[in-house]
Amino acid sequence: MKLCILENDILDGELAQSYSGFASMFFRLFESVGVDWDIQVFNTMRGEYPASFDNFDAVLLTGSRADSFSDEPWVVELRRQVTLLLEQEKKMVGVCFGHQLIALCLGAPVGRAPQGWGAGRMTYEWHRPDLPHSEDRTHISLLASHQDQVFELPPGAALVASNDFCPVASFTVGSQVFCIQPHPEFSEDVSAYLLDKRRHILGEEHYLRSRQSLEHGHEGEHIGRMVVSFLQGHDPVEGLIT
Asked: What CATH class is the domain 2-232?
C-alpha cells in the first residue's frame, strides 16, 4: 500500500517538540495496529503536493486549525485538488478538518458548530456493523477537538457514527471515502495539550469536564484497524487485523 498523507497544519509549541507534524501521529497509529506501509507526506500549507497522485493507492487528509470553508489560498487549492481526486475515484480518508473538507467538496454544508467546541473524550453511536472490526459494536469513544462540523451527510454517503453534539461524526461513500470528525491518531497527551491551550476559550466548566474525560481512555486503535482494512479493500465483515 502506497499512502499519500496531505498534512494540513504546522505544529508549534510542545506538540512540535514531540511530533514533527500530524502525519507522525498517523505513523504511530498505523504502527500500533501492525502495518508498515510506504507513506509519503506533503504539507499543503507550504504548497506541497505529489507530482502525481497516480503513484498512490490512497490519500489521507489530516486535521488543521484552519476552516475547511476558508478563502485562504492554500485551502482553496486543497479543495480543488480534493475535488479532482474525488472525480478520479481515488480512495480517501479524512480526519477532522479533512473530514469536513471532503464533505464540503462532496456538496455537504459545513460551518461553525452553534453548540461550540467539541473537546476531550466523546462517545458516538455506531451505525455500521458491516464495517471491519465492527460486528458487535454499538458505540465508540474517541478524542475530539473541533469548532466546525459537517451539518448534513453528503449526497450518496452512509452515516457511520453520530451523537447529539455532532450528528455527522463519520461517514463513508461506497468503498472510496471514509471520513471521521474525532481524532483516532490523538493520544491523551495531545488532547490535554490542546485543552490547556484553549482553556480560556472553553470556559472552566467545559475545560474541567473535558480534561477529566481523558482518564477513561479512547478507542483510536479500533479506527486505525478499520481504516487499514477499508483502504486495503478487505471484506467488510472479515477485516484485516484481529
From this structure: alpha beta
